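pls design
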């Protein structure tokens, strides 16, 4: 991101605020970060990197709840204009 921004500036400095929230002199995980951390913990506890619960029907409802939360956070971020100037792209790909 830094290489695409004007010299010495971050392209999307707002991204830093997605992960932590100031609380006095300390920082705590933002709701977005807490949700992502909870998803990783759930995955490790419930799916154990694929070793347990191999049948998706056993955990699909739980996973859907986590994905809904992620989508809600992304929608809030988009509504706040966070992603307005961002574009996903890769080098050396033809334009569509």
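designed seq:
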């Amino acid at each position: 991101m830094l290489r695409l921004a004007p010299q010495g500036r971050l392209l999307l400095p707002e991204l830093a605020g997605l992960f932590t929230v100031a609380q006095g002199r300390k920082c705590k995980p933002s709701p977005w970060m807490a949700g992502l951390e909870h998803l990783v913990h759930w995955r490790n506890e419930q799916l154990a990197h694929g070793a347990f619960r191999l049948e998706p029907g056993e955990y699909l409802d739980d996973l859907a709840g986590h994905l809904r939360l992620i989508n809600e956070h992304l929608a809030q971020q988009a509504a706040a204009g966070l992603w307005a100037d961002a574009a996903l792209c890769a080098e050396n790909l033809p334009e569509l």
